């Protein structure tokens, strides 16, 4: 045993090195030989082998269909040493018009559906190539590409296909290799070819130049790409993210709206989407949906989402986009194999690779045709000599002992090559007629012309480029179609302020949350007493809650119940006619499904002298300098830290001239205290706290991510804040309304000034006549009306001048008549004239506007038995 290995070499190998080498070999095999497409022809090995096997079987677009099992058998038997299921799955996908922008296989039978149904077994389906596949394989028999041994070295297979079609970007590709992945979206063929034509003439073209031709991905299932930033990133760097939304339209059925989905995002399973929407509606995670059904047929997709009577279609859509695959994100990674190495490309590089591949193919094809033409011309030259000396040729042949002897004598006599002499011996006697002799001469002249043309191509880059362009235009004419995927600009990604004139606009916002802007010139100036102009056409359950004049460059701030603050430039509000309904606010800002807008505040600037004040349901008040919100972000910012059981009730902008805060509770408390005032001693000097900071009688400013301070102390358990105001002087009047429609006007000075965090005083004397709770209050403006909304959806309008003044601790008078089982749930001010007509001369300006009544999406609690119609 000791001598067993005596004459053998023993090599010590570190197991770590061995495993590392083996894993690298495996990973490169997966990367190159299975998972990633080639940048030249855009195909993975399995797709390339399927097409070549079908080419071998003469399965052109005009040939009869053959069983898929026959194709799969040839592929795995000759070229692809893997399981038949992987090959058939690839073949099936190549035949699906909802998976590939231009299917490469023409399938007959059940090849699956967009609902996720599997294809029938390969013994039941049949297939052949499509017409475009023929152009992917065209010229493969002209030595245009290299052939390599197959897996068992018994046959040859193409290393690449000589495609005339930019397949990689046309159909896209997805694959997960070892340590890397590719995800290339499909594109429109016409746009791609236009870009390639530009690239042929301008090899240094940039991605931005090419995007003049290629708008972006074009998915086979259509849909809408929302925003261009991801496209720009992907085309410049090779990586980007695009949002795809379902395409829809709205229909009406009586008083109900119906959302109809016409197209779905790429790779979304229709049946699963419908099931998910139905479950969300059943679990009440999305409100307003009464029924979901699939009415799709061979004409196309039609998914019907019926809404309840009081549901707003755009709000439901917004929630569906956030909660279902009706909006998906496609993460683009332009990774492909080039010269046996994986690489991330940008758009110009990918198109340059394709152009370079086409040049190589055309050069090799031209050389092949040139050699073939020269070989034929060489034979014709010999035949011409034979025809011109036919008598002598016949004599030599007759005097020869055999073919070899005749061939040798002919070569010697006429200085012919062996090929030429053999051709003369093989020549039929029919070629000796006068007509055949003319044909021989004509063919020879044609060949000389062809040879000259082919040699010119090889010598001229310009002629080579002309051929590439000519063939590309031919492909475009044969196969290009219209773009299916629309692309919408996302204002969050585009800074277009410099392109928009800063001009005055009238912005109107309705109680149900529809907003629009109209140029102020649409409202001609009228004499005093004029009737005004209709500003908006509203539904029966909606009304203009506020309007103001602002410039297009000004900003609206939206504060939600969750303490989040969002921004919207006025120019990003859709412009409409005077009578247009407007667009739902929830579709203009990026709200979460459970967020409700509690306040909309306009501002011309973010001056540090101004503050933003927040009031919460639990009595917390917080004041933050307005300039802390000047850094606008599309996804909003956290404006206040809330306790778990707390939420924002309203928010206000305070100006240097603002003097008091007033906070109202549901059970009839109100507190009035200073906003800015600081504590001073008898000599008027500031009082400092233990940290040496000035103490406030009012509310000291705090940062964004703070909780705030107590504003009011509740006297009764279960009480909560319902409203708050910023007061400029004590002569202003407040209108307070209870749930049974009782209200009163009271001057501010009647409410005693106290310190912050106290209990305050009574705002209204509550009784059976008034109901249990105060609904809210507004600052009186006799040029406007009061609009009250009841729990059963009634809208009641009251002239503020008709409401008499009363003391602080009184009940007031009935100003809104409600039924026994009905009650007022919210109040707001609105323009005075009927039909929502606006007096633009007296419209509010931007700062200091009282917009805190804007509970646009605030569906009142079940405790109040509120079933407010149409108020999402």
Automatic annotation (TrEMBL):
Keywords: ATP-binding, Coiled coil, Cytoplasm, DNA-binding, Isomerase, Nucleotide-binding, Topoisomerase
Gene3D superfamilies tied to this protein: 3.30.1360.40, DNA gyrase/topoisomerase IV, subunit A, C-terminal, Topoisomerase II, domain 5, Topoisomerase, domain 3
Motif (GyrA-box): 526-532
Gene Ontology cellular component terms for the protein in this record: chromosome; cytoplasm; DNA topoisomerase type II (double strand cut, ATP-hydrolyzing) complex
Bilayer-spanning residue ranges: none
Remaining remarks: Few gyrases are as efficient as E.coli at forming negative supercoils. Not all organisms have 2 type II topoisomerases; in organisms with a single type II topoisomerase this enzyme also has to decatenate newly replicated chromosomes.
Family: Belongs to the type II topoisomerase GyrA/ParC subunit family.
Name of the protein in question: DNA gyrase subunit A
């Amino acid at each position: 045993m000791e001598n067993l290995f005596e004459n053998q070499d023993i090599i010590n190998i570190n197991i770590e090195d061995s495993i590392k080498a083996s894993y690298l070999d495996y990973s490169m095999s997966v990367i190159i030989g299975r998972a990633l497409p080639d940048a030249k022809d855009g195909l993975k090995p399995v797709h390339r082998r399927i097409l070549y096997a079908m080419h071998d079987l003469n399965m052109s677009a005009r040939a009869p269909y053959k069983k898929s099992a026959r194709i799969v058998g040839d592929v795995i038997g000759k070229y692809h040493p893997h399981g038949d299921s992987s090959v058939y799955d690839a073949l099936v996908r190549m035949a699906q018009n909802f998976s590939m922008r231009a299917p490469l296989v023409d399938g007959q039978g059940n090849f699956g559906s967009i609902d996720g149904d599997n294809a029938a077994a390969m013994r039941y389906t049949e297939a052949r190539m499509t017409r475009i596949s023929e152009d992917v394989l065209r010229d493969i028999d002209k030595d245009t590409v290299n052939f390599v041994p197959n897996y068992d070295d018994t046959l040859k297979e193409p290393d690449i296909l000589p495609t005339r079609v930019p397949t990689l970007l046309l159909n896209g590709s997805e694959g997960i290799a070892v340590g890397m992945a590719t995800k290339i979206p499909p594109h429109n063929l016409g746009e791609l070819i236009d870009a390639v034509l530009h690239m042929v003439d301008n090899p240094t073209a940039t991605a931005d130049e090419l995007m003049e031709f290629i708008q972006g991905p074009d998915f086979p299932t259509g849909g809408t790409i929302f925003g261009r930033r991801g496209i720009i990133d992907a085309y410049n760097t090779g990586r980007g993210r695009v949002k795809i939304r379902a395409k829809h339209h709205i229909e009406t059925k009586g008083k109900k709206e119906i959302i109809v989905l016409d197209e779905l995002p790429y790779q979304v399973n229709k049946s699963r989407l419908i099931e998910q929407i139905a479950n969300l509606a059943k679990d009440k995670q999305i409100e307003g949906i009464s029924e979901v059904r699939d009415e799709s047929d061979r004409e196309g997709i039609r998914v019907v989402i019926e809404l309840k009577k009081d549901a707003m279609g755009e709000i439901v859509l917004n929630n569906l986009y956030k909660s279902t695959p009706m909006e998906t994100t496609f993460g683009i990674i332009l990774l492909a194999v080039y010269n046996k190495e994986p690489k991330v490309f940008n758009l110009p590089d990918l198109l340059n690779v394709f152009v370079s591949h086409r040049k190589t193919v055309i050069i090799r094809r031209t050389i092949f045709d040139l050699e073939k033409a020269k070989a034929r011309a060489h034979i014709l030259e010999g035949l011409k000599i034979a025809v011109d000396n036919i008598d002598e040729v016949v004599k030599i042949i007759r005097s020869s002992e055999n073919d070899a002897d005749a061939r040798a004598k002919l070569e010697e006599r006429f200085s012919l090559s062996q090929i030429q002499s053999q051709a003369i011996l093989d020549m039929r006697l029919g070629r000796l007629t006068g007509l055949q002799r003319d044909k021989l001469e004509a063919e020879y002249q044609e060949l000389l012309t062809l040879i000259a043309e082919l040699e010119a191509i090889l010598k001229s880059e310009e002629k080579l480029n002309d051929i590439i362009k000519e063939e590309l235009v031919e492909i475009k004419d044969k196969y290009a179609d219209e773009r299916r995927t629309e692309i919408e600009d996302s204002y969050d990604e585009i800074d277009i302020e410099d392109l928009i004139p800063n001009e005055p606009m009238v912005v109107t916002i309705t109680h149900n949350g529809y907003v629009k802007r109209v140029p102020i010139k649409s409202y001609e100036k009228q004499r005093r007493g004029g009737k005004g102009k209709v500003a908006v056409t509203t539904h029966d359950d909606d009304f203009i809650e506020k309007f103001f004049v602002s410039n297009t460059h000004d900003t609206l701030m939206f504060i939600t119940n969750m303490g989040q603050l969002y921004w919207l430039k006025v120019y990003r509000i859709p412009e409409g006619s005077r009578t247009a309904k407007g667009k739902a606010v929830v579709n203009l800002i990026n709200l979460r499904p459970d967020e409700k807008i509690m306040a909309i505040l306009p501002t011309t600037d973010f001056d540090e002298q101004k503050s933003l004040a927040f009031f919460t349901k639990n009595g917390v008040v917080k004041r933050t300098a307005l300039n802390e919100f000047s850094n606008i972000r599309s996804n909003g910012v956290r404006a206040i830290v809330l306790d778990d059981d707390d939420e924002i009730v309203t928010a206000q902008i305070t100006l240097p001239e603002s003097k008091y805060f007033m906070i109202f509770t549901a059970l009839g408390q109100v507190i009035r205290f200073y906003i800015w005032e600081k504590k001073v001693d008898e000599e008027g000097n500031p009082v400092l706290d233990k940290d040496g900071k000035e103490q406030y009688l009012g509310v000291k400013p705090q940062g964004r991510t703070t909780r705030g301070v107590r504003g009011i102390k509740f006297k009764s358990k279960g009480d909560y804040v319902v409203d708050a105001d910023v007061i400029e002087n004590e002569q202003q009047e407040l209108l307070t309304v209870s749930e049974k429609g009782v209200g009163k006007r009271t001057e501010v000075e009647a409410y005693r000034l106290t310190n912050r965090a106290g209990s305050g005083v009574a705002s209204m004397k509550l009784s059976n006549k008034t109901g249990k709770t105060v609904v809210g209050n507004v600052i009186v403006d006799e040029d406007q009306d009061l609009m009250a909304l009841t729990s059963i959806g009634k809208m009641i309008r009251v002239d503020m001048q008709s409401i008499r003044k009363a003391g602080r601790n009184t009940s007031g008078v009935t100003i809104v008549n409600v039924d026994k089982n009905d009650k007022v749930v919210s109040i707001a001010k609105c323009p005075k004239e009927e039909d929502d007509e606006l007096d633009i001369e007296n419209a509010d300006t931007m700062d200091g506007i009282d917009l805190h009544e804007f509970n646009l999406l605030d569906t009142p609690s079940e405790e109040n038995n509120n079933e407010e119609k149409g108020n999402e």
